[in-house]
Each structure stands twice: as C-alpha cells, then as structure tokens.
Amino acid sequence: MLSRIQLVVANLFLFIFTVNFAFGGAVSGAVFGHWTLSQSPYIVTGESYVPADRQLFIEAGVQVRFTAGASLTVYGILIANGTYQQTIEFSGYYGSTWDGLRFQNSNFTSNLLNYVIVRNANTPLVVQLSTLQVTNSSFEGLSTGLTLVRSVVQINSCNITIRGSYGIGMYSVESDVYFHNNVLDVQSSGFAQNAIGFQINSGSPNIQFNIITINATSTATGFILQNQNVGLIKRNLVKLYSQLENSGLELSDVAANVQIHHNTFRSMINGSSFNGVLIYTCRNVDLRNNIFWGRGLGIGRQILSGVVFWNYNVVYGFTENYLNGTAGPNDINSDPLLDEQTYYPTINSPVINAGDPTLPYDPDGTVADIGAFYYSFTKIETRDVFNPERFDFYCYPNPFNSSVQFRFHVSTKPVHLTIYNSIGQSVFSATYNRFNEMVSTSWTPHLKVSGIYIVELASEDFVIRRSLIYLK
C-alpha cells in the first residue's frame, strides 16, 4: 500500500504532467490541421514539419513551446493569425534554446505570421525558396534575426531583437524583401565581436521607415549591400554604438538602380571612429538626401573604386569628410542640428528644405529636408477666426515608450484628434467641443507595435500633423 507521502508525490507528478502535456500535448514529426486555444499549449519535442500538401492553422492566443534543439519547418502552408489582444507565442520550453521557424520550398502566398512572438531561438526565422507575409510581430534571437534565401518576404510593423556574441539583424540572399516600419535592435556582447543590421546580397530590397540600433564590442555596421542591381533604402534612422569603429554603409558592386535616399546615420559614442559610407566597384549608385553624422573621427565618404551619383548629403563630424573624391555640389558639411532624442531637425537646422528638389516633397508640401525625418511646416488653410501664429500643439515626450501627452486649445469650433499608423489606418480618434478651453489629453498605445505614427489635429480652420515615434 502506498504511503501518504508516496500518494502526494504521485499526484504532484500527475499534475505536472497534465499541466504540461494534457492539452495540445507533445508533438513531433508531421503536423497539420488546426491548433486551437482550448488545446494550448502545444509542446514541440523534436524536428516537426508541415508537409508540402498540408496546412497548419494556429488560432489567436495559442502558445507553442519547443524543447532544446527542436524546430518547426513549413513545406506546406502555415497561417498563424493572432490579434493584438491575443498574440501567438513560439518560445523555448522553460527557457530552452530552440532552432526557430523555417519555411522551405513553401511558395504559397497564404503563409502568414500576424501578431506572433518568437522567443529564445538561435535564428528566429529562416525563409528559403518561399513566400511569407509577417506583420505586427516580435522576434528575439541569439545570432541572426532573419535569414532569407531566394524568397519573397514582406515584413511590416515588427520588432526584431538580437542578443548574442555575434549578431546580424537580417541576412538576405537573392530575395525580394519589403521591410517597412520595423524596429531592429542588434547587440553583440562577445569579445571583439561585430554586429550588422542588414547584410544583403543581390535580390530586390525595399527597406523604408525603420529605426535601427546596432551595438558591438568591435565594429557596428548599418548596411552591407553586395552585388545589387536594384533596391530602395529610404528614411531609415541608424544609430551605431561601438566604442571602437562604426560603419554606416558598405557598398560593393552596387548599380545605378539602387537608390539610397533620406537616411540618417549617427555614431553615438564620443571618441569612436565612424566611416560613413565605403564604396567598392560601384556603378553610379544613387545617394541623395542622407545624413552621415560622426563624432570627430573617421572618414565620411571613401571611394575605393567605381562611380557614385552623390549630391545633397550632409557629411559632418569626421577627421576627413571625403577620401578619393569631391563633395557633391549641394552637400552640407556643418552640424545638421538635429534633436538628439528624436533626430528631427530643429528650427535652425541647415537640412530644412535643403534636399534635392527633384525628389518627392515632404508631406507638409515643402522641398524635401535631408535625413530620415523632416521638419513639419504646418499645412494650414487660414480662415478669419484662426490665427496660426497663436496656435500651439504640444506632443510630449517624443519619442515615447509608454504614453504621449497632447496639449492644445479649442476655440469656437470642434477639434478632432486622430492618430494613424504607418499604413494610414486610424488607431485612435476623439473629438473635443468644449469651447475656449485648453485641452490636455494622452494616448497609450496598448499592444501596438513600435514605429512611426502620425497624429493629426483638425478643425474647419486648420490641419496640423506631427510624427510620433513609439519605442517599446
């Protein structure tokens, strides 16, 4: 007969086993069908895969745990469609390290990761010869965040974080990549290790409106572009934190159809060397309206071989601004006077309206500013009851990581406050009609992704728009 202690131990073991495996249970090998919230969590114990002729649909709120070294490879179709209230989470079982999600020969446009969190993986996402759409998701890795090979991938409004001895945010080979409105944070902690934001070889990259932070014990590099015939790198903020050496752009065998416009590259550590852009064997690659902002050491632009179409750039804060070549006729070699918190131009900045007038104008209707962010001249239709010189619209703090405060005055007509995400969808709106009062209100973006938002204050007499930067 079992003693009371033995019964307690037996029941405790049964309880632990039930909590861990009784719902979705332990899975391995071929997986397909429908994973439901009621059966969550699912425990992946080995190399699992979705067969080429099958589909796996994962409900919002499902948790998938992977034992050490386990992985999920998709040959068929994976649809993981969460919501901002109920995300889908893929993570290591009790914090164990696993091998990530893989798409292999899965050329299906229905592949979707939406409101998905991937944690504790060596490489969170590998896509080879596949098609995938990723939105509103978060990836945490230990080496490379995203590996893309000969694939078509859209990544929008995501957070990618790499923490390891050596880190690459995205490694792409011969892929068509649409990478917009994301926050990429790469930190290498090993001794004398490098960190790279993007390493792209061939393909067609379209990389816009991203906030990129690179931290390394040796060299921190924003972009490495190789063998590139077409691509658009536009309106990205790149912050480089190596105490030894920083590199904004390294271009090798890049052609004229590659456009690199409106980016801001900033060396963040006083005393560190910064090489703004290094050019090898390029063929008229197009660089305009960019800011390369150093800390007093390094070379702004170095051409080792090839030809570059270069004009309307800011090169400032280097030992030598140009090596093997001359400045563009409309370059600026003075302090860009950006706000060091937001990287928007301050009111006396020389970059305001100083960009190439043949490129698209800024959203406020003025000639493009140089750099990733523009100074907003309020676009107003003035009527008899409105004096724009007396109107103040405060947004503070900006950037923000919790909530942002708004302060404005309502005179004799209703005022509408609307906040839009990066693709123009309204995420908040309110109307204020208590006249002749100062309004103080706030917005907290619960479960929203980091990135750039637009706040619009509108009445019959005016429209004012400001950019907001939300950093989790």
Q: What does the model show?
A:
By secondary structure, the protein is mainly beta. It folds into three domains: 1-106, no CATH class; 143-375; 388-470, Macroglobulin (MG2) domain (Immunoglobulin-like). The chain contains one helix and 43 strands. The strands form four sheets. The chain has a 24-stranded parallel sheet that branches. The longest helix has 18 residues, at 4-21. The protein is globular. Residues 5-23 and 378-391 have low confidence and may be disordered.
Secondary structure topology:
Elements: H1 4-21, E1 25-30, E2 33-35, E3 42-50, E4 55-58, E5 63-66, E6 71-74, E7 77-81, E8 88-92, E9 101-104, E10 112-114, E11 116-121, E12 125-128, E13 131-135, E14 138-141, E15 144-149, E16 152-156, E17 159-164, E18 167-173, E19 176-180, E20 183-188, E21 195-201, E22 204-208, E23 211-215, E24 219-228, E25 231-234, E26 237-240, E27 245-254, E28 258-261, E29 264-267, E30 273-280, E31 282-288, E32 291-293, E33 299-303, E34 306-311, E35 314-316, E36 320-323, E37 394-396, E38 404-410, E39 415-420, E40 426-432, E41 437-443, E42 451-458, E43 463-470
Parallel strand pairs: 1-3, 2-4, 3-5, 3-6, 4-7, 5-8, 6-9, 7-10, 8-11, 9-12, 10-13, 11-14, 12-15, 13-16, 14-17, 15-18, 16-19, 17-20, 18-21, 19-22, 20-23, 21-24, 22-25, 23-26, 24-27, 25-28, 26-29, 27-30, 28-31, 29-32, 30-33, 31-34, 32-35, 33-36
Antiparallel strand pairs: 37-38, 38-41, 39-40, 39-42, 42-43
